[in-house]
Structures are given as C-alpha cells and as structure tokens.
Amino acid sequence: MRDLTELTDVEEPAWPLLSEAISNSRVSMDVLPVDPAQARGSLLQLQLTARSWLGSFVLNCGGVLLDSGWLRIYGSPDDDAPPGTPSFAEVNDIPERFDPAWQPEAGLVVAHDVLGGVFVVNGSDPAQANRPGGPGEVLYFAPDSLRWDALGVGYGPWLSWMMDGAPEQFYDTLRWPGWRAETGPLPGSHGITFAPVLWTAANRRDLPAARRRAVHMSDLMDLHRGTGLELDKIDPGFLGNFDDY
C-alpha cells in the first residue's frame, strides 16, 4: 500500500491541465468547493495518484454540476456545497476509515445525470461483472435502454469531452423544451422520471408530452436496476449509493 504522500506528491500532477479544462469549459457549470480531509481519505482508499485525472479531480475539486445541474460529476464537496449533493466517496460507498479489504463493486461511479443515467469507470475485470469495454474505460448506463454502453475512452478524455460541449449532442433526443427550468433547481439527490417511461416506444415518439416528476435518486436507481434485470435477465450491478440523502 502506498501512503498518502506517495499519492499526492507526484511529478506532473494532472490538476493544472484539469483546472484549465474546467476554466475553459464550453458548458455552464458550478464548481463545488473541496473538503481536503475527505479528498485525501478517498485518494488513500482508492490508491489513486494525483497524476491521474480521476485522482486529481477527487483530490482537488468538490465536484461539478454541469449544464444547469443536468450532469453531476462527483468530487469531494465541503459543507458549503448545495444540499443533497453526494460526494464521490458517498456515492461509491467508500469507507470513512481506510479499509484494506474494501474493493469497489465492478467499477467506480463518477457521475449521474438527472435522468438516472450513470457514468462508471470500469474495474479490472468488466466481463466478470457482465459489463462491456475494457478495464478503466468509461461506461454509460442509459436510462432509455437500461443497458451499459462502452464509450471507448478513459476518465480524462471523457471529462474533457463533457466540458467541451458533449452534453448537447449526447442528450439530443432526451431533452425537452424548458428542461433547464426543471433540472436547475433539483438537488443532487433527485432526478426526473417519466410516464410513459423513457425506454418505451411511446415515450420516444413524443418525449415533450410525457408526464415528468422529481423522485429520489435511490428510487430511480432501484427502478432502472429492477426493470433492467426483469427485461434482460442480467443485473446491471451497482448504480450508486444515495442512502444518506
């Protein structure tokens, strides 16, 4: 096991490049203040260095609420973060004190969108977890198909892509007139569900006409996981923890 100094005091840390990407983002965002103690604890548990973009983001940033809160990218927020905003540690169920026996389940949840879509960095053996892609690749659990899609990139390129304007195209068929007014006020503990649900043909024919309501993310994750298991007979696995919110 590497101690905290070995993880933080590295040559060529990623934060200068990452910070520049945040500053130059083409997408509106709120950058949350960081809790240094929580950040260091997460880094130690994960054994990530500040040379990696994921390690550097968790260490130096409280998180990002991108595009009027549509996408919540998890970091290590302090007490001044908006209410209901989970941390990277909380959403991944990382122990508060270092536990050498703890391992993430299949991968690490790095972001959720307001529809209940989940971005995950693959673990070391995606096939064993019934997930596509290679180790370290970012996957997306799509709320309109209830399946995992491999995005073909790691965390750093994915984060750069999202900040460079990707959400507009990525979510082109899943947004409706006035969506910003609905998603902006939502706390990070809540998302939006639809009737008819997103994965039905009826919804795809006329998304703006669907009825929408805010629900707790735990309920949204349970709905997606349970329905995905029922439809495909394959458990999509861990989609993030919101039990404390």
Structural Rg: 17 Å
Looking at the chains present, what oligomeric state does this protein adopt? single chain
Q: In one word, what is the shape?
A: globular
How confident is the prediction overall: mean pLDDT? 94
Question: How much of the polypeptide forms β-strand, as a percent range?
Answer: 15-25%
Q: Tell me about the biggest sheet?
A: 7 strands, antiparallel
Low-confidence stretches: none
Number of DSSP helical runs: 10
Succession of helices and strands = HHEHHEEHEEEEHHHEHEH
The residue fraction in helices comes out at 25-40%
Q: Quote the distance from N terminus to C terminus.
A: 32 Å
Describe the structure in brief:
By secondary structure, this protein is α+β, with helices and mostly antiparallel strands.
Polypeptide structure, described:
The strands form two sheets. The chain has a seven-stranded antiparallel beta sheet with strand order 1-2-3-4-5-6-7, with helices on one face. 42% of the residues are buried. The chain contains ten helices and nine strands. The protein starts with a helix and ends in a 13-residue tail after the last helix. The chain has helices at residues 4-8, 15-23, 36-46, 53-60, 88-91, 155-163, 166-170, 179-183, 201-205, 217-232, and strands at residues 29-31, 63-66, 71-74, 107-113, 118-122, 138-142, 147-150, 190-195, 211-216.
